Amino acid sequence: MNGNDEIRGHEYTALMTQVRDAERTSWFCWTGAGLMSAVLLSNAINSHSPGLLLPVQVCAALGFYATVQARQQVRQIEGYIRDTFEKTSEMQWCTRRTQFNDTNSWQTLALANALTVVSVVFSWVFANGAAHGELLAGLTTMAGVGFSVHSIVEHMRSETERQSASWSAASTPNSLREVTPNRRAS
User: What span, in angstroms and rounded, lies between the C-alpha atoms of 28 and 63?
Assistant: First the structure.
């Protein structure tokens, strides 16, 4: 065994550990933010206050963005692992993983936007009974619509990056390429 092989093995192990840690942190952040949003939502419904529904959206957004950032970090590390380690060795974990669809990302988007929609609806339901209720319901609606649009756009961008990464992994330097014939003008 060559000294470089041992260093490559340690680097591969360290990168895989970093991927696992990023995924675990993402899961804990999303779960914590979801639970906190649910607690804040139930507290706001119990007190009939539209102003308390804005923190529900903030918690959902923080959890969503922590998950998105961790997924981007994981994709970058996995891309590096595929390019550096898995082209020349029998270790193919990241290459096989990209072949499966990540349905969890749609669940995160749906749950974050569901919390946002519920908080917007309840903010307007409770707007009549609170001081400055319409103002607070309007702020909650603006924040909810802004987050929903931004989260959907961000999710579409990350899905495009994921799909393009899987296509770039499929194209190797020795793969087929389009050949255009040289035409002469007569």
Answer: 9
